[in-house]
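Milestone M4 deliverable, item 7.
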Amino acid sequence: TATLRPYLNAVRATLQAALCLENFSSQVVERHNKPEVEVRSSKELLLQPVIISRNEKEKVLIEGSINSVRVSIAVKQADEIEKILCHKFMRFMMMRAENFFILRRKPVEGYDISFLITNFHTEQMYKHKLVDFVIHFMEEIDKEISEM
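Output delivered:
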């Protein structure tokens, strides 16, 4: 649709900028390397969260830090049936989270699904492919729900 392409382009550009990650050990616990976007132990290591909205129900929250990025997606759900279908599909995905290396088992509050990308993911995988995966996922979800 006409509004989907600019929305996905904005998400793509923001993700490409946010995925400049580096290995960073904890400042609190020696020899620990946890995703700062999750632990939130040092405020200076966190970036300003960015929300990109297509409309009031469909939005993406991109939270960045020095060594990780959390991408949370709220999917459009026009009626009760779409809400149930979306919930079932997201549960199905999250139960298989270990197969999708960057998928979180539990979404951020207020969102339907979340991805966690760490510096280890960007070291082992191509950055542009990670961005392509998230964008492709968003396109497919939009298409599937529109067709139901």
